[in-house]
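A protein record pairs a chain with a discrete description of its three-dimensional fold. The shape at a given residue is found from the number at the same position. Here is what such a record looks like in full:
>
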Amino acid sequence: LRGAAGIGATGLGSAVSPGQGFVIEALITLVLVLVVFGAAADEVNALDVKGSPPLAIGLSITACHLFAIPLTGSSMNPARSLGPAVVLGNFTHLWVYWAGPITGAVTAAILYQGVFRARR
């Protein structure tokens, strides 16, 4: 079974540096948080949203995973990387999976509030 020895641990691809991994994790988390804000979390915008917010969120997760799994394992969530790292005792490049998503989420929040938020 492919990947069974790693029990779900995230890791950087062979051609991906830690800096590149940080940017990728920040980018995919930024996309996810922007979609969540735009589709489901903005009370002013909620009345104008057409379609299904859960579908939009799910499709954004799918798209980000399809892009990032070969590169970084596509964590998008620090806890998702921490659990397998603790069990395996392998903390190599774990900072990428903490700093990247946190940076992406904070950047998305600032960007959404400053640029994309629906006005009353």
